Amino acid sequence: MELLWVALSGLWLMLPSLLPNSAAVIFGGGTPVDLGRSWRGKRIFGDGKTWTGLIGGISAGVSLGVILLFIAYPFDPTNFWGFGNCPDNVMIVSVLSIGSLLGDLGGSFVKRRLGIERGGKTPILDQYNFALGSIVFALIAFPNWFIANFIEGEHVLALVVFLVAVPILHRAVNVIGYKTGKKNVPW
Ligand code: CTP
Ligand code: MG
Q1: Into how many domains does the chain fold?
Q2: Ligand 1: does its nearest atom lie under 6 Å from the Cβ of 46?
Q3: 167 in ligand 1 pocket by Cβ < 6 Å?
Q4: How crowded is the C-beta side of 91, counted as CA atoms within 13 Å?
């Protein structure tokens, strides 16, 4: 039972990383982050990365994170169910959300450098760019928190469950985005 909770904690703790990507699809559509500019003949990020998507997505992730903290606080006032104590826990959900969409932005930067057009399929990079962004940012800003919750001992299960869930959730959300006309392609 204990192990099951450790495994599921990976999804709970990474919710502020998971939401921004889907929220960006809903908030997107405005001015591109690169303002239409190119670098060495190719767009820096492309039309799929917009300011409204970036800011809306990050705000959604941070808001969700704060809601999770409010839910956990009455049960666990010293460790808010794994996010730690205030104000670190607010910083952690923010770092996860910001890292998520900067990872997504970085992924598009790499795709454009490889000559892949906006929306072009790029296996692994498309699914994991945001997860990688959150992990790298969390490791830089809160290394002890990340190691304790995703690396040390049985907690590596949390990382495995998260990494297995990412492409499944990504696919599900993109199919919904495609069917509702929010995305041009179902990936
Ligand atoms: N989106 C946005 N701003 C962001 C991220 C996403 O507006 N910072 C919106 C865009 O409408 C984008 C959609 O969410 O088309 C889906 O995101 P994603 O699949 O990451 O973008 P792609 O259009 O596939 O572009 P790329 O090839 O650069 O990944
Ligand atoms: Mg895409």
Answers
A1: 1
A2: yes
A3: no
A4: 14
Instruction: Quote the tokens at residue 9.
Output: 């904690």
Domain hosting 51: range is: 15-143
For residue 184, tell me if it sits in a domain: no
pTM above 0.90, yes or no: yes
Domain presence at residue 161: no
In a domain, 67, yes or no: yes
Q: Which two tokens stand for residue 36?
A: 């239409």
Tell me the pLDDT tens digit for each residue of 95-144: 999 999 999 999 999 999 999 999 999 999 999 999 999 999 999 999 99
- What distance in angstroms lies between residue 70's CA and the mean position of ligand 2's atoms? 33
How close is the Cα of 69 to the center of ligand 2, in Å?
30
User: How far apart (Å, rounded) are the C-alpha atoms in residues 187 and 164?
Assistant: 17
Which tokens in the block code for residue 83? 């996010």
Residue 157 lies in a domain: no
Say how many Å lie between the CA of residue 150 and the centre of ligand 2: 27
